[in-house]
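Format notes (please read before filing issues)

Several people have asked whether sequences and structure tokens are stored in separate files. They are not. Every record keeps both together, in the order shown below: the sequence lines, then the token lines. Line labels are part of the format and must not be stripped during preprocessing.
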Amino acid sequence: MEKDVQDIQKHLDRWLMQVEDIQKTQSTDAEFLADIKADLFLNEIYVSTPKGDTKILPRNATPIDFAYAIHSQVGHHCLGAYVDDQRVALNSRLYSGATVRIITKDSATPQPAWLHYVVTGKARSAIRYWIKSTNEEDFQIMGQRLLKEALHSLRCDMNDISEAQWKKTLAILSIEDKAHLFYEIARGNQNPKLVSYRLLNQQIDLMADDDANTPLMIKSTEGLAVKLQHCCHPIPGDTLVAMLDHDVGLAVHRVACPNLPRSNDHAFSLAWQEHTGQLFLTPIKVFVNNHFGVLFSITNLLNKMEVNIEDLSITGDSEVKEMYFLLQIEDTSRLQEIIRGLNDLSDVINITRTF
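Then the structure lines:
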């Protein structure tokens, strides 16, 4: 009985420390209550760092929960994870006794999708706070870049615009200041080309742009103002196009994406500025002869190539199977390497990259 009381007291002490961490993220009252309830008296697992530092987490915790349990900055810059020396997806479930190594990178940032599968209140509140604090800034930066590109196409530098002309344009548009203008551009509420003409006091002529096909350069870790669309899963190396979207800023597609609107008056041509080693989700379909061991052959090859499988499904008939793989890869060069390796397997009939 005394031991049970001591265990409960230890749990309460840990929980109170987590409540203090959650309070620092300035959640709303409703979010605060939901987050602290999530951590109270859940079944626990014991997970360790490679150095032997043990963290106690709720059952079904993910590597992201573990990263935030170490430190909020470890969570914010989490890029990947190894569990017992095996690379795993960030939404995989941890288990007691596991040794977890978190891979971090300065350019890595929290993703809104993480909120769908983290289970600790500390992780949820930290991710939510980061998104709220960086969302507007990311949109402003992207809007400024779009306006700079539009001005450049008119042979003008943004620094050449006088303060008087800025004030006049902002007054016409009923926008408070430059930061809000950049934000509205990224949200798709203001067309950067039209704003450029107003700033330059030029007659609006959208067809007179000699540099209209000059692509906007983006990074693979651009922030919340650039959203890689799940309908076509663009990755570095793809030819890109983007549409301004009110909710996400630049919605980035592969140029052949069937979901792109037919009218592309507000489309932007994009190009990758650099590759950071970040992993991107890429779906492929592998058509195979339905022979014994074919699935093992494919997954074994992917394991040897150190390719993580995020999802897998199989359909087909008794003779030919269609295997859908959602892979985590770096770029199109890596994708071609994987396809060449799979094509060397005797039972593989065809491989296609899907949308």
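For reference, the curators noted about this record: Residues 121-153 form the longest helix (33 residues). The longest strand covers residues 280-289.
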